[in-house]
Amino acid sequence: MATAPAANDNARPSRLGPFLRSPAFGLVLVALLAAAPAAAVLLGQPFWLTMATRVAIFALAALSLSFILGQGGLVSFGHAAPFGIGAYAVLILADLGFTDALVAFPVAFLAGALFSGVTGTVALRTRGVYFIMITLALAQMAFFTFTSLSAYGGDDGMTLWARSTVAGQKWLKNDLTFAYLAIGLLALFLVLGNRVLASRFGRVFRGLKENESRLAALGYDAYPVRLVAYALAGGVAAVAGALLANQTEFVSPAYMAWQRSGDLIVMVVLGGLGPLHGAIVGAAVVLVVEETLSHLTEHWKIIFGPLLILIVLLRGGLIARILGGRRG
Amino acid sequence: MADPILKLDDLSKNFGALPVTRHVSLEVLPGEIHAVIGPNGAGKTTLINQISGVLKPDRGRVLFAGQDVTRLGVAARARLGLARIFQISSVVAGFSAQENVALAAQAKAGSSFRFLKPARADRAIEDKAAESLAAVGLARRADVAAALLSHGEKRALELAMALVQAPRLVLLDEPMAGTGKAETERLTELLAGLRGRLPMLLIEHDMATVFALADRITVLVEGAVAASGSPEAIRNDPVVRRAYLGEDAHA
Q1: Where does the ABC transporter domain lie (chain B) (predicted)?
Q2: Residue B108: its chain A contacts at CB < 8 A?
Q3: Most exposed: A111, A127, A167, B45, by fewest CB within 10 Å?
Q4: Beta carbons of B37 and B225 less than 8 angstroms apart
């Protein structure tokens, strides 16, 4: 179908491609994102400060999904579940009197990893469409569990009393500081993620996506490797959820609705399913387009949908298309 | 006589009502190249799938390295030292040749649950991989993505992946399928160079290769062993000539 354009692309000499796929370019993207909050404050545009923070938070969630989906071929349609669990971890811990981020964030990570680890023991027994459906089903179970938590607002969710403290200090009340916490965590997990992908573990995990039967013939069991990756990705998604709870100072089951899982997949696909930092581009594009189009019309999804289809049909993701580098 | 490295004991398998493996017993001795030949549909690939663990036999046992592995899966058998070269080349297309072999070497060198140290920093594994690539003549193609290698090169790459694991037995499922004449000769030479050091179970259509390599040949017809013996004996076996070799008997 699309072989002809692909051939053209290969013929086009591009030295940019390898750079765009390299971890170094990921750091360039983070640096660009890091410039936004400072610029927003200097130019007196507080909205763009909020926007940059949101982009960093969703980029982190999308990055964790990209780790299992883009690199491992695990199409999870339930990634909003650990994301929402991270948000609830902050809310519930605050309710219990643990308001410090140094407690809340690690606990959020562990809760997300635990949820993904436990549900993964079931989901990873399946393949293909079944995996997509079972991850969706498990996430919906989490969703309905939290809608029935009347102590924490049920359907409506609940306002967070205050943002997490850091070692007892209320630094995160400042939106600029908070933005840099989000961007800092994004940078940290981007670097860590790339490191894991380059490790012995990452080599096996990436190999499994391409040729599971060959890896079996080499003596590798897919299941434990995928389970660990799946749990780690859940933990990182939960950290993003913990950030979002703090930014909006509000937590509700909508954070783990299936639409949010879909949004995360869209971000990863837009980013090109390749290197992890594609998720940053994907998250930025989705959030900015959503913001822009929703000003134009309430039915902005009518425009966004076809736009999305167009991009997917062009294959290779946005970075690849616009800047001329191709994956693989 | 030395204990066989692989022993199939009365192996049977049906696909529905169709018997595809019928009471097959055979042995591969240490250092031996044992070829399994037979016309299309004789059940050669089904047999190799039962040896590697892809399929479970309905009846009978697979003994590998003195251990009953009938109930073990593919990966577990591989860890015991059973390497396989697939009928259709099977490598990790997106990895370089070097990384493919390193991946194979890594399976034999400690835990893969190491998360932070770059895999390429492990000199011992990288050196072993480079050595194995050189042994099959792919040293200069080490950094090329496996997807871009020629058919024959992919075959050689699979062989390098098998060798780097220092296996106790290599299953070769039609290694010459689809390769050109020159490549077939080169691969045959490579395999002949391993004779005596590495036992192999070879399934192959190319009779020249079979008779050049095999120490022992088993003929499979309609899922059952029709004859088994030295290449000389098989060449002169009237049953085999009628059932299978026929016009191919020029070899």
Answers
A1: 6-247
A2: 219
A3: A167
A4: no
A&B contacts, CB < 8 Å: 98
In this prediction, residues B166-182 reach a mean pLDDT of 90
Mutate to test the interface with B, among A200, A204, A206, A327 (most CBs of B within 10 A): A200
Side chain identity, residue A210: E
Buried b (16+ CB within 10 A) or exposed e, B39-62: beebbbbbbbbbbbbbbebeebeb
Strand partners, B217: B35, B229
The domain covering B6-81+167-250 belongs, at the CATH homologous superfamily level, to P-loop containing nucleotide triphosphate hydrolases (3.40.50.300)
**B78/A222 Cα distance (integer angstroms):** 13
Beta bridge partners of A165: A100
Give the whole-angstrom CA distance, residue A90 versus residue A161: 11
pTM: 0.90
Residue A53 clears pLDDT 90, i.e. is over it: yes
Residue B28 makes CB contacts below 8 A (sequence gap 6+) with B4, B5, B6, B7, B34, B169, B199, B200, B201
* Domain residue extents for chain B: 6-81+167-250
Q: Sign (positive/negative) of CA torsion B232, B238, B243, B245?
A: positive
